[in-house]
Amino acid sequence: MSEFRTLSDTVFAAGQIGTEDIARAEAQGVTLIVNNRPDGEAPGQPEGATIEAAARAAGIDYVAIPVDSSGFDHARIAAMQAALDNAEGKVLAYCRTGTRSTLLWALAEARGGRDPAAIERAAQAAGYDLAPIRSVMIELAEQAQQ
């Protein structure tokens, strides 16, 4: 089972989840699962379609916003922001370790105008380091204020 780390009142990040994690997600109020891991990244990893089917069978929405070696582009950040903004409950975002999901969450939050320092504190409390994207978060938050 994957550990769900709390990023906010409505968002969890996790490493690779399996179908056995879906019931626990549902019990914790998750209404949307965001897959930030590309299929085929590692041998034996569950395919996104498998997680999607299990999530939908449990009444949980699912969206794939895979982050590969090309990184965090504006389209992915906007897609994550839209997913978070449109969720009608808690969100569980996952990738291999939870780091990409946390970084993408942080960028989406900054793009929405949230304070980068507050985002960074929340990520640190969950065990994630946002130093690699700090300057981008600040830039996105400033653009949101214009």
Key phrases:
146 residues, 6 helices, Protein-Tyrosine Phosphatase, Chain A, five-stranded mixed sheet
Model description:
This protein is an alpha/beta fold and 146 residues long. It has one domain (5-145): Protein-Tyrosine Phosphatase, Chain A (Alpha-Beta Complex), CATH 3.90.190.10. 44% of the residues lie in helices and 14% in strands. It is built from six helices and five strands; from the N terminus they run E-E-H-E-H-E-H-E-H-H-H. The chain has a five-stranded mixed sheet with strand order 1-2-5-3-4, sandwiched between helices. The mean pLDDT is 97.
Task: Kindly summarize this structure in a few lines.
With 146 residues, the protein is of the alpha/beta class.
Distance between the termini: 43 Å
The portion of residues assigned to helices is 40-55%
Largest sheet: 5 strands, mixed
Rg is 14 Å
Number of helices, where a helix is a run of at least 4 consecutive DSSP H or I residues? 6
CATH topology annotation: Protein-Tyrosine Phosphatase, Chain A
Helices and strands, in order, run as EEHEHEHEHHH
CATH class: Alpha Beta
Mean pLDDT: 97
Structural class from helices and strands?
alpha/beta
Number of domains: 1
Low-confidence stretches: none
- What would CATH call the architecture? Alpha-Beta Complex
* E-strand count: 5
Superfamily at the CATH H level? Protein tyrosine phosphatase superfamily
Report strand %.
5-15%
* Strand order, largest beta sheet: 1-2-5-3-4
Shape: globular
